[in-house]
Amino acid sequence: MKYSRFEDAAHDFGRSFTGTVNLASLDPTMTYLTRYAISSGEPVFRVDLLSGDAAPEPLNAPPVSESVRHYVRWFPRFIAQQGLAFRSIEAASLEVAFDLESVRDPELDGRSLSIDFGCTVRIEDDRGDSHVAAFRDTWHTKAQPPGSPRRFWWQFWRPAA
Question: What is the pTM of this model?
């Protein structure tokens, strides 16, 4: 097993968690996480990928908490799919940090928002080495609060509920 591949695995796991395919209640999990961070003023979300502990509570509300449970359950299988031995991991964490000062309305219509964020995934192996993958990106979403009435693109003929 090549321990150097842990960094690549950490990067891919972070991109998956913060990507559009990580759906929660028909919206990407990052949309909910973004809205919770802005409304609570809590800029950093942390997850222990081995125990499933996530904090702070305002950001770990449903459906984010459900997505976290799914990703924590998937983590050992993901590591195995990367050709790595899960038993060689001593600690693993994911952190998403929002830059709350960067919130903006890119379409200038009052219905959308963008926010910069950073994601860091740390994996500590059984040799005591720490493998860190970090990236910065921008999340774009509609500014509607979670659970508000909506009309899906395939229901274009129906009025919004």
Answer: 0.86
Domain boundaries, the chain: 5-145
Cβ atoms < 10 Å from Cβ of 159: 7
Question: Residue 135: which residues within 8 A CB-CB, separation 6 or more?
Answer: 11, 14, 15, 118, 119
Q: pLDDT averaged over consecutive 10-residue blocks of the chain (161 residues)?
A: 91 97 89 93 98 98 96 98 96 98 77 92 97 97 60 54 51
Peptide bond into 58 cis (omega under 30): no
CA dihedral 20, 21, 25, 26 (to 10 degrees): 70
